[in-house]
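Work Package 4 report. The design task specified in the project plan requires that, given a folded chain encoded as structure tokens, an amino acid be chosen for each position. We show below one input record used in the internal validation round.
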């Protein structure tokens, strides 16, 4: 998850579409198929593939309380930080403490999201969210919350994500991009495209 968060920071830091695409493509190429598939969903700003009906059902108030508790900050401090950033994820990244032993794998985050979605009742969800954010570094927590709230805001459109996947697994040719776009329409999520592209490339090399 650390590398994912650092990649998001790099994507957000530039307005150049070609550079954004290159950053995503390079990141995906270095991931395992499972990591890349989950990353593609997260990069689209969602916790789960768009074709799934699964939802986290975690509100902003719950996240606010957990961040305040973990940061040991009062309401005034949180409010000031929120006015500065306008984004609870960015607030978490700024005020959550760095602890030894923190750090999550992206598949761990995906598994935690599914546990949170399956949990019933605010108390159960709060416990799971608290545990997830406690184990995350502040930078990881920033993007975990952004994904949970559906507010990634790194300037990465779905079409650009498609292009990045095409570049990572099929080259930059226009035909490759068209293949990815067609597959995206059929599969309903860019997550499946990472595995799809790798399988297609493997078959072409046979």
């Amino acid at each position: 998850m650390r590398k994912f968060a650092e990649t998001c920071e790099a994507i957000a830091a530039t307005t150049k579409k070609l550079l954004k695409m290159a950053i995503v493509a390079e990141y995906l190429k270095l991931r395992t198929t499972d990591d890349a598939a989950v990353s593609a969903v997260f990069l689209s700003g969602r916790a789960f593939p768009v074709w799934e009906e699964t939802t986290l059902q975690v509100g902003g108030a719950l996240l606010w309380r957990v961040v305040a508790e973990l940061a040991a900050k009062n309401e005034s401090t949180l409010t000031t930080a929120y006015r500065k950033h306008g984004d609870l994820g960015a607030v978490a990244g700024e005020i959550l403490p760095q602890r030894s032993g923190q750090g999550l794998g992206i598949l761990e985050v995906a598994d935690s999201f599914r546990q949170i979605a399956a949990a019933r009742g605010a108390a159960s969800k709060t416990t799971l969210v608290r545990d997830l954010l406690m184990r995350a570094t502040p930078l990881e927590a920033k993007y975990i919350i952004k994904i949970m709230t559906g507010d990634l805001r790194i300037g990465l459109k779905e079409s650009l994500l498609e292009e990045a996947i095409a570049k990572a697994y099929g080259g930059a040719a226009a035909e490759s991009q068209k293949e990815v776009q067609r597959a995206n329409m059929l599969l309903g999520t860019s997550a499946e495209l990472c595995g799809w592209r790798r399988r297609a490339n493997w078959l072409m090399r046979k």
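The radius of gyration is 18 Å. Validation will be extended to a larger panel in the next phase.
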